[in-house]
Amino acid sequence: MDTSNFTQNLLALQAKLYQFAYRLTNNAESARDLLQDTSLAVLYNERLYTPNTNFSAWCHTIMRNLFTNQYRKTQRERAYCETMSNSMLVFHDSTVDSFSDTTEILQVLELLPAWQKESFVLHISGFKYREIAEKLNLPLGTVKSRIFQSKQQLKLQLQDFI
Questions:
Q1: What backbone phi and psi angles, to 5 degrees, belong to 72?
Q2: DSSP 88
Q3: Local structure of 1: helix, strand or coil
Q4: 145 dihedral zone (left: phi>0; alpha: psi -120 to 50; beta)
């Protein structure tokens, strides 16, 4: 299939793809976004399409995969937000014996500058350095440095717990 024919087939399929996107998202705006992402992905991956196969099924599969990936990403972010909102922090190097100890640790954590605390909380929540760098749009070295500095400050402030 040549490029112009490929594009025409994609344009002809837009209404069906929108209907499928709407069934997946149950939201008109999200369906339009998903349709746009799908159309871009289809055009970008034109070279991967096998001629004389079901073009519609190929496009629908791309849309379903994009939706699934976005859904999983949203679930991970929601889990992170719940972790942050509950302030349930797990410290791997020490054990906390009482509620007052936990309160004191959280108070010391609040003393960290926001830019430092954000990286550190993501780190202790289980995110890898690279994931934190991507999430915060920072260089990897900056993330490592901030987490190291946070640990040093917390060790100094929490000497009684170590």
A1: -65, -40
A2: -
A3: coil
A4: alpha
pLDDT value of residue 162: 55
Residue at 17: amino acid letter: L
Q: What's the average pLDDT block by block, 10 residues per block, for the chain (162 residues)?
A: 83 94 92 93 91 92 91 74 52 48 73 84 85 90 90 81 59
Nearest to 22 by CA among 36, 11, 10, 32: 32
Helix (H, G, I), strand (E, B) or coil at 126: coil
8 A C-beta contact, residue 64 and residue 99: no
DSSP codes of every residue in 8-42: HHHHHTHHHHHHHHHHHHS-HHHHHHHHHHHHHHH
CB atoms within 10 A of CB 38: 26
Give the global pTM: 0.49
User: How many other C-beta atoms can be found within 10 angstroms of the C-beta atom of residue 55?
Assistant: 19
Report the chain's C-alpha Rg in angstroms: 23
Tokens of 71: 């859904």
Which pairs count as long-range contacts for 40-47, CB under 8 Å and 24+ apart, including other chains? 41/66, 42/10, 43/7, 43/10, 46/3, 46/6
Supply φ then ψ for residue 113, to 5 degrees: -60, 150
Number of H helices, E strands in the chain: 8, 0
Question: 155: closest CA among 131, 120, 118, 127?
Answer: 120
